[in-house]
Here is the input.
Amino acid sequence: MTRGMPRSAGAATAPRPGRSCPLDYRYRPADIAAAPVLRAGHVYVVGGLYGNVEALQAIEAMRDAEAAQGRDVHLVFNGDAHWFDAEAADFARITDALEAHAACAGNVEAELARGPGEAGCGCAYPEFVDDAVVIRSNRIIERLRGTAQGFAAHLDPLRRLPRMLRLRIGGLDVGVVHGDAWSLAGWNFSQEALCAARRAGWPAGPDSLRLAWLESGLRLLCSSHSCLPAAVELALDGGPRILMNNGAAGMPNFCGCPYGLITRISVCAQVPPDSLYGTAVEGVRIDAVPVRYDHAAWCARFLRTWPPGSDAHASYWTRIAGGPQYAVSEALFGAFAQRAARRLAHTMPLAGRSGIAGSSDS
Here is the structure.
């Protein structure tokens, strides 16, 4: 939910609210590949909407614009659609969207469905994250549970949300999770974990991204839980393997960039004009595209629900207002980073530009 260092799910020796997660969060990479398949030609993977109604409206408008061009886009929510939507009308709007589209559970949905317990918010925050952040997140989920009590009929659909989804887009099989390939609230697909893996030469350890690809047999994995985006493309078994962690659809992901981020997957070979970075595999485009919601309206809505002095304001307002101290270049690994570096080297002498962080390939 906020930036932190990775650790394996269930590493704590005793349950600690917000630090540990229930055993039913756990699964194996092979379970993702065995999930029922949803076939589609065009998909938006929407992770970390966090109750941002304006972002939801923007995503629906993006979908409708593609429909006008003949592309039927499916919305696929991969967790934490709820969070800041403590007002009943906002909670209802997000709930309706979850029930209308394909979705898997994030820790927020899982803990709303479960009710109060030892997991707190279910974030499984690593030790790097300050205790004050963890305490505030546990209080946020308690307030959200109070809102959810007014929607008792909708708790059963939350309980039925699967832990993962599998998509088939063209000839590409895609695994969709909230956390990582081992836990709904796992941090092994976080930017920090990926940096550590890159420094170690991408080893095939017990929680490695390489092992997730190999055991699942999937070329593309999508996640979001760690709240900051990360994109990896590595060659494995003679072909590209890709991770797209979209970070947050409902919050800024990069410093000074007031928009959310989703993963767009499409059989259309054309590069989206607003792609921040992307690639193609087996004839399928995979891109990180911005969600340009009404930032002023969202800030006003957030402040009405979470004014200064509230828990969510203390934890999130700086990011909501101006973005995290994070650049696109920090999100790119493997071939994504190599293409961005080549493009930067090519453009800087021509235009004298600085701060170019990344760009889609063609």
